[in-house]
User: Fold these one by one.
Assistant:
Number 1:
Amino acid sequence: MIEFKDVKKVYPNGTEALGGIDLKIEDGEFVFIVGVSGAGKSTLTKLLTREEKITSGSLTVNGFDLSRMPERKVPYYRRRIGVVFQDFRLLPDMTVYENVAFAMQIVGEPKRVIKRRVPSILSIVGLQDKASCFPDQLAGGEQQRVALARALANNPATIIADEPTGNIDPRLSLEIMNLLIKIHRKNKTVIVVTHEKQLVDYFQQRVVTIDGGNIVSDRVGGMFGETV
Amino acid sequence: MKRYRISYFFGQAFKGMWRNRMMTLASVTVLLSCLIVMGCFAMLVINIERNLDSLGDLNEIVAFVDSEEPYIEGAKAPLAPALTAPGKTFLGWSTDPDATSPEFRPGDTYSVSAKDAVAGVITMYAVWQGGITHEGYTVRYHALGVNLEGTLPEDSETLAPGTSLLLAPAVKARFDNREFVGWSTDPNASLHSDGGSDTAAETGDETTGETSEPTAPVGDGAPIYAPGDEYTVSADDARGGVITFYAIWEEKPSFTSYTLVYDTLGVEASGSLTDAEVRLNKIESQLQGLDNIAENGIVFVSREETLQAEKDKLKDYPSLFAYLEEGDNPYPDTFQITYKDNSGVDALKLQLDNIDGIYKTRCRADLARNIESLKHGIILVFSWFMAILFVVSIFVIINTVKLAVVHRSKEITIMRYVGATKWFIAFPFELEGIIIGLISGVAAFFIQWYMYVYVQSMIMNQIELISILPFAALRPLVLVGCLLIGVLTGLIGSMISIRKYLKA
């Protein structure tokens, strides 16, 4: 469960990015977070990944109290969430297999566990045939699927996707979104931050709209265009 | 799992070093140089310390004596001890060769007085029981302290009273234009200033009712004979069986310092008969009376022995002594004194300085103290050097590791997102710093080993005075020091360079 309680975020330069957000996302939910550029979407994402600390209020993610989490516990929190970025963030000198395995290595998974799990994760995202390719040999959509596989590697309860389709061919966006839905069906909480209204409308899921640092609407269904 | 991680960390570290191999090489070189400088300083200080200890243990003090320094008016001169001569009994000393009772007892102190001196020389005559009978008189010439061109006329044979002889011709002063006036038996004789002429001119003031007619100009008190004049031997002119004709100069040389000589009046006697010997003996007896002296702790080293020893020591450099003329000796007489207790060395020094004739002391403890302060200076410089070099090394390593960090900054960001702990991210870089430090440390150790042995053999061959520890004694210290400082520098440098990238 993810719970924002009157969360405010003011950057050191004085910009108020979030002005008191109250939001509750239950386990296993699929939520779109939408809004125009500068509305506060990426700040929200950064708070969820604990790149930024909240200024006031409280934020709890899967039992971790992010407002009071000491620095040294952050890595262990991040292992419980999987993050997908707009720009994929793959390691260019590692193969697809190695990129996924890398996430498992750094948390100290034994080699045999890695050997067994990586192919199964790659088969979820449909890249089992491309395991030995390097990222630059793949198309944008495929790269994002690798990133998704990596996010899933440590079996997190929550997947946070920050503009996952922003950098890929619109025809392939649907493919990625379908994958996220597929992951959601495996009983994971999925949060997708996006501004692509067609996708949001298409999937008819819970939509949280942010504008000017505040939640302006929170409803199930599409109508992304009509509310903002 | 563990083994896998170790190979991962080392793999990452070596990969990083290889990628920036030029920088790695540079930082190894800089750190290596720093370690070598540090090591050299440390070994220097240790060796100074060692030499200090052995210097301080010598308990030796050297007293420099000047036994030939002339006396000034009123100075206290020790007189020679009693003489022994077969068939003669020594009574004492007198400034009068014809004295029958001694003015001074042997070993007395004589207060130097100008009136006893002739041309800066005070003669102490031995007084013998019964006196000395003279069968005749010797005529002797005396330059009155003026350096002559050529030599003085020789002594005459022993002459009976009443014998006539012709006086020696005129002598000439060597360095100045002092005018020779004539010969006189009185060293204080002088011309009347109103005589007006250097040539023989009767002044008519005849003080001696002698048989001989002095044809020379007559001064106050005693007649002055012209060179070549005839002189008839008279017992009244004799002192101690010798009739001395002093060269009378128009302008008399003056003396403010005096030397002391002994005259046995022709008796063959044994005992110290030079003033220098007497003075040295006096000093030695004073030294014997001091407290803090070890058994057989006083050794006299004469200036001749010192000169010879120095010549032997520096025999490869004969030019150093080439300027010395025969008989010249730049070295003083010394007493080498070994004392018992190191804590009393200052008191002993003070006592030595108060002994007449000792003008300087040199103490091993002083030398040790000087080196000690030198050592403090070296340690101070060393500490600063070390601090600066340490900082320089750290900066170079920061840069080297930072290159690796920047190269992998993307990877580091990704690692952070997927939940890698700080130490997992940092360790390969720290390992890189440590490996650089280790390589530098090991290399520095072996280079220093070589250098030390080289310098040691060089110094051992050239300077015997200095003792140098064998390298084996320093080996553990140098090895541990190099490795420790190297690793520490590498670790600190890499920790500083990675710190910025570790923020969650």
Note: The beta strands of chain A are 2-10, 16-25, 30-34, 56-61, 64-65, 81-84, 158-162, 189-194, 206-211, 214-220.
Number 2:
Amino acid sequence: MSVDSMFVHKMWNDQELCRMVEGGIPFPMLSDAGGKVGKVYGVYDEEAGVETRGRFIIDPDGVIQGYEVLTPPVGRNVAESIRQVQAFQLVRESKGTQATPSGWRPGKPTLKPGPDLVGNVWKEWNTSLAFD
Amino acid sequence: MAEQLNAGCARPTGGPVGEAPADTGEKQEERKEASKMVLIGRKAPDFTAPGFHQGKFVNVKLSEYLGKWVLLCFYPGDFTFV
């Protein structure tokens, strides 16, 4: 979503992005004239008249589980966004009985919070697990 | 899912959906300062927005995606480089 019109979105997709992504952009490219939606989400820069690089993870109940906002010159890490969605999905499927510690990615151990884990995380997790 | 839009000469717009924030009577200047982030763990504000999707112009409503995981991404503008 950006403040550009849907017509400009079409031109960007047809002229440039379809040369990077086969078949063009697979998701809707949304137009937010005047930054009305961006203001509600807190990512509209009034002075510049544009939206910053805000990324929101919204769960199936419509609840915001996380967000990240970057200034324009630095791009996002798509793999990290996907990893976060996978982690939120695991937590949701476990109905909150499992948590994903720092550095978790699919295949790495999760934690089961409860009285027995207090003071014992060191038995389950070490700092090497924080890195890929 | 999304309603298809006909491309006319007028530029379609969308915006937040639902109750407008109550007018608290604060001064305009104060309200300008209060550009607050939404909070995690709270409902994502619903909105409608016109857009382009797979060759068609569409009108998208966030709440149509209930039941699915959504990544909502804002960016400064088309043809920017990053």
Note: The two ends of chain A are 31 Å apart (CA to CA).
Number 3:
Amino acid sequence: MKIGVMLRDALRRLLGRPLTIGYPLKPERPATPRGYRGMIAYDWETCIGCMLCLKVCPSGAVSVADRRKVTFDVGRCIFCGQCAEICPVGAVRLTSEFEMVAVDRSAYRVGPRW
Amino acid sequence: MELHLATAASAPIVLLVSLVYEGVDRKLRARMQGRVGPPLLQPFYDLVKLFSKDRIIPFTAAYPLFNYAPLLSASCALAGGALVFVVLVTGLQLAGDLLLVFYLLSSSSLLAMVGGASSGNPYAAISLSRGLSVLLSYKLPMLLSVLTAAIKAGGTLSLASVIALQAEAGGGIATLSLGGALALLAFMLCMPAEGEVPPFDVTTAKTEVVHGFLIEYGGPHLALVKIAKGVSRFSTALLAASLFLYTPARPPLAAMLCLLEAMCIAVLTITVPGTVLGRVKPSQVVRFCLVAPTSIAILSLAISLLEAGGLA
């Protein structure tokens, strides 16, 4: 009988470990899959200023900063990862950071820090 | 005068326990679905949030009804629940309080529905029409099973004498007699309809009537309707516990036991069906309530009458 099956499943779930994890996340964060495209990390000292990332960015999230460096506006970013792919020196990387919440908008402008 | 004060004083207790039950309900439901679920105090956080929001009243709403019905509904539910609690703790004799509790709890659900339907939203109107037919169909067997308990207690309609009888007999009506057990069964079969949970949640079905009469409510109004619903759910369970499963003990302990039993009844009849069952059609709700619980309740009534006749 279907009610019996549902009851059995519910009881089994009740006694077993839940499939989800609590939020806010505990220190041990869940593993992200390989190749996960999260928050942008920009190594401005390695950057050679070729501006290829600016050319490929489909959402216009990349802008020119002082001294031939770039700034990423993560608020506009669509996490396509094309900037990381085209960068000849590997200065742009998409990390596994997925919790992107901030009170201050400037926290999500990634650029050179002189 | 004392009764008024006691009822007013125990309303916050009933509210507190109902909200704790709601937290337990949400946690258990989540765990049965394999989720971690919200913290136990989530219903309290929700109420704080809702009460701090603005009131929104639609242009099409009949203002006084839409605005005040949630408040009345919540106060009716709280009064009903608090009355059961007061009688449970003090053993106060009050002629006809069973009917009063029944009346208060019914008015609470009725007022919430009417208030929502006065918003002018067509979904709320559909929900009201569904709600009324469901209300009429499950209140009948519920009332019949309450009457069984009243007949057991010698034909009085006061909760205190039903409790006194159970204290004297040394156990709950449901554990001592077949009629009582059947009455409890009929009562519990009606509980999912009272609590508006699956399989009988046709009035507030999200996928059919978009939350029904709740559709235009938000902020403090929604908070009050939520209070009304939570309290009347728990009060009905408390009524069942004190009518059929009262365990004789020293006064504060007996009330605590009753609260615990009410919690268990609510988990069995609201949390579990709400998780494992799917929704049925409105006509099926009415048919079910008017067939299964009603016939069981009539049977229990007949058995109790026979037993009472045998004793006399």
Note: Chain A has a mean pLDDT of 89.
